[in-house]
Specification:
Elements: H1 5-8, H2 15-23, E1 27-38, H3 41-46, E2 54-64, E3 69-78
Length: 90
């Protein structure tokens, strides 16, 4: 859906601004689910945490006006190192 995104996106760019300006996508909605998890072997190694440590899993889907999924992201954060802020706008 976004051919050449790596070449267009710069370090300080907004991904959603690029979606809009370079690819002409208008975002209709985003749905994000946050759930507590325990880290499996792979995740605990990547995050340098003990096996079965607590973490938060963020699962986000961003939809265009025609209901296509433009972004699907899964992120895992250790719950002791981050602060979360959620802003909702119309």
């Amino acid at each position: 859906m976004c051919f050449g995104l790596k070449e267009v996106l710069k370090e300080d760019d907004s991904l959603y601004k690029i979606f809009r300006k370079e690819y002409n996508y208008k975002i209709e909605k985003a749905i994000q689910t946050i759930e507590p998890i325990t880290l499996n072997k792979e995740s605990s190694n990547l995050l340098n945490r003990e096996l079965n440590s607590l973490a938060l899993k963020f699962d986000r889907k961003v939809y265009t006006q025609d209901k296509s999924i433009l972004e699907y992201t899964i992120s895992i954060f250790t719950s002791d190192k981050y602060q979360y802020q959620i802003m909702m706008t119309e």
